[in-house]
Amino acid sequence: MDTSIDIKNYLPHRAPMLMVDMVLKMDNEKVETVFEIKETNIFIKNNIFVEVGLIENAAQTCSSIVAKGYFVDENNEDKEGVNVVGFISALKTLKIYALPKVGSIITTRATLVSKFVTDTYSLCTMSCQTFHKEELLLEGEINLFIRPTPALPKKERAKKRL
Predict the structure, then answer these.
(1) How many domains does the structure of the chain reveal?
(2) Residue 141: pLDDT band with limits 50, 70, 90
(3) Spatial contact of 31 and 23, defined as CB atoms under 8 Å apart
């Protein structure tokens, strides 16, 4: 897939916890996202996007590959009424080299290292790097746990979006 994709199609996150604006590229093993750091972001301190924001951006980028299997069927058609919950189960390695300022646009690239999928949950290890222009900000390996939750009826989904 090489066209821009709304990340909200693959993640349950919404403002103020959504740390990815758009998926630029995604296939079954790699993903690339972009995120503009705004002054209203909850992870801004002294005009800087702090470490936890970079980590959350990387985790959301990484989880979009695994979450995709829950939101899109084998024909690339959207599934209706799907909800998932996910979290970082481990930061295997993590190096933060620099923190971007408000107004920066960061790009995060992630590659699937391993994946274990059952009927009730998915575990994966992802290798990721985050850049501002050509400057490497973050690199590491993240383990993620993702599982589906009961789907809400259409009426409840509409209320939840408000």
Answers:
(1) 1
(2) very high
(3) yes
